[in-house]
Amino acid sequence: MAVIWPRSHRGPHVILSTLFAAALALADRPAAVVPVADQAAYKAWLADQAIEAEAAFSLKPRCSDAAVRDIATTTGPLAKPPPGVRATALAESLTVEGCGRRMRVNIGVLAPLQGQGWQARTGIPGDSLAGYGLQQQAAHELQAVLAGRVSATCVEVGFGEAEVVARPGGVHLLAVGSPPPKATPGIFYSALKDPTTLARIAQDQAWAERWPLSACGVDASVVILFGPIRDSDQIYMSISPGWTAAK
Q: Can you tell me the distance from the alpha carbon of 221 to that of 241, in angstroms, rounded to the nearest whole number?
């Protein structure tokens, strides 16, 4: 069993006319990161990355005719950019729609100082507050949770769109044995066995996400609590079943 994660790709690619067509709806990117002369090629390359990511996460054939549209593009500094890479990266969020499917994909892009050697790092689809590294860590750790749910013969697990079920300020942590509070929309309650861990988590910074997963026709979704540790760069993670029980 393996959680599917699109490979990181480097440009340039063989750009086909269909990719240019898919990229027509994309706006120009900041010229400080993508030079004006490279805008068309970059957008076609980005559309290719987005279409490939949607196919990999959904475990469906690549939809070459899919439309790719902007949701948001942000820039951010790199503290230690690799050699030959600009000190500013792009965070791309796009909608891929076609072949009866629709998905929000998220791609981080490193841009070269010269030329078109863009590097893509794909995040999970949908909405997530976790960075790329934390997403990869969570994806690795959820294997143990899925072991009792997914058949040993099922070798691939696909992703749907992630959802933030509780943002910072909306998580209430309880000690095991505490009386369960009345359910409140937008509030996520979680009971922790270890009182030391409970005390160390910065509760006002914690958040929770639901990751919709599918394994050979079986709902294998999970809910993940992310709890930043006080005075530390560490983040506590608790992964619990989020699938619908069979009737």
A: 7
Residue 122 β-bridge partners: 107
Per DSSP bridges, beta strands 2-3 and 156-159 are parallel
Q: What is the pLDDT of residues 45-73, one digit of tens each?
A: 999 999 999 999 999 999 988 999 999 99
Q: Which residues contact 199 (CB under 8 A, 6 or more apart)?
A: none
Residues 134-190: tens digit of each pLDDT: 999 999 898 888 888 888 888 888 999 999 999 999 999 998 888 877 778 778 999
Closest among 56, 57, 43 to 13, alpha carbons compared: 43
Burial label for 246, CB within 10 Å (0-12, 13-18, 19+), is exposed
The per-residue DSSP string of 49-96 comes to HHHHHHHHHHTS---TT-EEEEEEEEEEE-SSPPTTB-SEEEEEEEEE
Q: Where are the alpha helices (H) located in the chain, listed in sequence order? A: 17-22, 39-58, 132-146, 195-200
